[in-house]
């Protein structure tokens, strides 16, 4: 959940990034991008390193990823809301955090689609009390009041909001700027609320969100990897290394199929996670270099 | 806190130099950082303010020179390149931002790269420029964070050192560790806290504008992301040149003049004896460098404030108003430790700070301390304020440590507590084309 622009629905044509397409260098970059491994771009000439990069494949790939995550999000949300409505407190608690991960991976898209983020992911006081619904309202009931009572309507509403999000996903045109900034935004989400334990203030399942945000950012990085290789191989390698470091650190906190509670983290743990995140986000924020002409 | 040997307040010479520069008519108005770059391009950095060793030696105890020219000089450039790092012999600027870092990289090559990047950025920032080449690209975060744009360079200095922990097993540097270079031993009354202690790397940033100083630390920390993390930071201040036109010895937060005696930074012989590590000291990579001690000394402000003037003066061994040794009139009067009152008691008490700090006056070090204020101590509701003690010396084991040991019985200890400590080997200066630490890394 983050601060959203009211009603800002972005349907930005992909053509922005395609402007100037058709010249020689561009074709070269395109053919390089057709490959799926970084090695395919190793022969890219110096000229193409300075050329605008074609991000069509990356943008298409990200839309596909968003839809996949959203499809799975619907399936898991249905299980979660069913448990809530059946009064199955333990199952509902167990499903809460893993379900949310599908959303957390694709938050930048959801945020570009209007009011979905406040409806699905608002925390108490983020919105007027009367408008508060979504995951965190149920979270409060499950962990603070230790009951599913009174949550049936909220659960139904959540499910319909998630379905509506999925429907709109079809219409999304992923914009190249959204793509390069989206990865950093995902990590900024972690930095501002997850690493401080403020996101999941009742369930303390912040590390699930943390991991999912990092995974979502990594997906974008992977999609942009060929373009990044061609433009700035050193930056590409640095980001890759820092993702590995972040993942290695997060792996320490695995517990069963999930992650330990935020309350199990020491101050030193939190600091190390935060600093690893900053180390990753700094080079990641330079990915916009591929948009330079 | 204020009495270790020597005879000269370094800021006196600054004032004199400023007047010289003023009369020379070099700059009649404050200049912007951009102007400085232009000037540097035209005349070369040698024309700019802050070059050291240009003046003569003031006599001990001479009256401070008026400093009408402070605004002018405070805006200037202190050369980043040179035989010694700037920020040591440089007369103290108004503000300090100190930062200690811990390295997170695995290989010495990555440490080297970090110092190369830092060197490049430091050279640009101290000359008033903007870091990096993408400050106007809408698709990227600006390479310089921007808050110092168009500000005058403000005498910015950035001084780099490395701590004993750099020489552990990580980087294969253990054979190069100077023999006596180690974390300080525990001193009587220490209450060190981990959050203000140690560090692989220490960076002292000083400037006459806090925003300029902060900008430097912030951008160095940004460059370090993924290679080193901040371990602790501390800002500090002294009375600014604006509020003390006379340029008197600054007062610490206990209200006493602090820094009356210090080695003369303009006397190369003294500096070689007291401050600069020498080639034949056994550590070739430190020749021309200096060892820094940093101590975060909290003052028990509330306790001090309810002590009588008589107690306060007995604690320091000096008069509060004049700064003169007890029984004398002038701040720069010789300290006579043998002076007795009419009853035969020492005029300067046996446990007074001035007496213990001075000892037999055989050990000197260059002090470059600042006051600090860090808000409230939340457990007590009292002010967390005190002294960020910084000293430079040729050999910590022979200089700082014996002095600090003598202070075990200091009456001042009733009112202060050391809660942070670090030592750093500050590299020799860097030549253009080289990088900070290139003698070691």
From TrEMBL, chain A:
NCBIfam families with a match to the protein in the record: EfeO
Subcellular location: Cell envelope
Species classification: Bacteria, Bacillati, Bacillota, Bacilli, Bacillales
Protein name, entry field: Iron uptake system component EfeO
Family: Belongs to the EfeM/EfeO family.
Record's GO cellular component terms: cell envelope
InterPro entries per the UniProt record, alphabetical: EfeM/EfeO_iron_uptake, Imelysin-like, Imelysin-like_EfeO/Algp7, Imelysin_sf, Iron_uptake_EfeM/EfeO
Major localization class: other
Keyword terms, alphabetized: Signal
Domain called Imelysin-like: residue spans: 70-287
Signal peptide: 1-19
TrEMBL record, chain B:
Stored PROSITE patterns: DYP_PEROXIDASE, TAT
Record PANTHER family: DEFERROCHELATASE, DEFERROCHELATASE/PEROXIDASE
Domain (Dyp-type peroxidase C-terminal) ranges: 249-430
InterPro entries from the UniProt entry: Dimeric_a/b-barrel, Dyp_perox_C, Dyp_perox_N, Dyp_peroxidase, EfeB/EfeN, TAT_signal, TAT_signal_bac_arc
One Gene Ontology cellular component: cytosol
Superkingdom per UniProt: Bacteria
Top EC category: oxidoreductase
Catalytic activity: heme b + 2 H(+) = protoporphyrin IX + Fe(2+)
The protein's role, per its UniProt record: Involved in the recovery of exogenous heme iron. Extracts iron from heme while preserving the protoporphyrin ring intact.
Protein name (Swiss-Prot/TrEMBL): Deferrochelatase
Keyword Iron attached: yes
EC number: 1.11.1.-
Location(s), subcellular: Cell envelope
UniProt family annotation: Belongs to the DyP-type peroxidase family.
Keywords: Heme, Iron, Lyase, Membrane, Metal-binding, Oxidoreductase, Peroxidase, Signal, Transmembrane, Transmembrane helix
């Amino acid at each position: 959940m983050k601060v959203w622009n009211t009603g800002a629905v972005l349907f930005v044509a992909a053509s922005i990034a395609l402007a100037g397409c058709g010249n020689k260098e561009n074709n070269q970059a395109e053919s390089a991008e057709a490959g799926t491994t970084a090695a395919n771009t190793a022969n890219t000439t110096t000229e193409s390193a300075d050329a605008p990069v074609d991000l069509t494949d990356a943008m298409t790939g990200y839309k596909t990823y968003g839809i996949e995550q959203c499809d799975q999000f619907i399936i898991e949300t249905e299980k979660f809301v069913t448990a809530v409505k059946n009064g199955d407190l333990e199952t509902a608690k167990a499903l809460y955090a893993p379900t949310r991960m599908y959303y957390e991976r694709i938050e930048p898209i959801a945020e570009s689609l209007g009011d979905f983020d406040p409806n699905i992911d608002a925390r108490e006081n983020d919105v007027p009390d009367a408008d508060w619904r979504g995951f965190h309202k149920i979270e409060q009931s499950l962990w603070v009041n230790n009951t599913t009572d009174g949550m049936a309507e909220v659960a139904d509403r959540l499910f319909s909001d998630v379905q509506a999000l999925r429907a709109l996903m079809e219409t999304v045109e992923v914009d190249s700027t959204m793509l390069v900034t989206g990865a950093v935004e995902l990590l900024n989400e972690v930095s501002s609320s997850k690493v401080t334990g403020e996101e999941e203030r009742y369930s303390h399942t912040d590390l699930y969100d943390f991991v999912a945000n990092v995974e979502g950012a990594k997906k974008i990085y992977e999609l942009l990897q060929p373009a990044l290789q061609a433009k700035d191989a050193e930056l590409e390698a640095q980001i890759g290394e820092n993702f590995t470091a972040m993942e290695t650190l997060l792996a320490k906190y695995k517990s069963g199929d999930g992650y330990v509670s935020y309350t199990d983290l020491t101050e030193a743990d939190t600091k190390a996670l935060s600093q690893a995140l900053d180390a990753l986000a700094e080079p990641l924020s330079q990915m916009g270099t591929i948009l330079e002409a | 806190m204020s009495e270790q040997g020597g005879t000269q307040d370094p800021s006196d010479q600054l004032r004199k130099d400023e007047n010289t520069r003023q009369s020379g008519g070099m700059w009649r108005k404050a200049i912007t950082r951009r102007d400085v770059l232009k000037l540097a391009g035209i005349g070369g950095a040698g024309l700019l303010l802050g070059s050291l060793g240009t003046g003569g030696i003031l006599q001990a105890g001479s009256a401070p020179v008026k400093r009408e020219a402070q605004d002018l000089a405070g805006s200037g450039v202190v050369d980043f390149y040179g035989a010694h790092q700037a920020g040591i012999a440089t007369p103290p600027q108004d503000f300090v931002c100190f930062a200690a870092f811990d390295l997170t990289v695995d290989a010495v090559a990555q440490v080297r790269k970090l110092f190369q990047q830092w060197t490049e950025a430091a050279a640009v920032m101290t000359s008033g420029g903007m870091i990096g080449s993408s400050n106007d690209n809408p698709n990227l975060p600006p390479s310089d964070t921007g808050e110092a744009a168009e500000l005058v360079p403000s005498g910015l200095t950035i001084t780099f050192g490395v701590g004993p922990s750099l020489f552990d097993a990580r980087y294969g540097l253990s054979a190069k560790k100077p023999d006596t270079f180690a974390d300080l031993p525990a001193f009587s009354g220490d209450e060190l806290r981990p959050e203000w202690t140690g560090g692989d790397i220490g960076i002292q940033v000083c400037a006459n504008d806090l925003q300029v100083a902060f900008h430097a630390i912030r951008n160095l920390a940004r460059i370090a992301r993924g290679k080193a993390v901040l371990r602790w930071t501390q800002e500090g201040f002294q009375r600014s040149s604006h509020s003390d036109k006379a340029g008197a010895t600054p007062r610490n937060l206990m209200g006493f003049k602090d820094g009356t005696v210090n080695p003369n930074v303009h006397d190369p012989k003294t500096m070689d004896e007291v401050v600069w590590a020498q080639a034949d000291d056994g550590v070739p990579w430190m020749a021309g460098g200096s060892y820094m001690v940093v101590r975060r000394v909290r003052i028990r402000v509330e306790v001090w404030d309810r002590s009588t003037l008589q107690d306060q003066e007995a604690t320091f061994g000096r008069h509060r108003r004049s700064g003169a040794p007890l029984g004398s009139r002038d701040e720069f009067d010789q300290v006579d430790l043998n002076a007795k009152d009419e009853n035969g008691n020492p005029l300067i008490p046996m446990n007074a700070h001035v007496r213990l700090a001075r000892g037999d006056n055989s050990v000197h070090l260059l002090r470059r301390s600042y006051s600090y204020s860090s808000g409230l101590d939340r457990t007590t509701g009292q002010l967390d304020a005190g002294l960020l003690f910084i000293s430079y010396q040729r050999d910590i084991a022979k200089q700082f440590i014996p002095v600090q040991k003598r202070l075990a019985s200091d009456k001042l200890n009733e009112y202060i507590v050391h809660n942070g400590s670090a030592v750093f080997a500050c590299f020799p200066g860097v030549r253009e084309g080289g990088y900070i630490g290139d003698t070691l890394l």
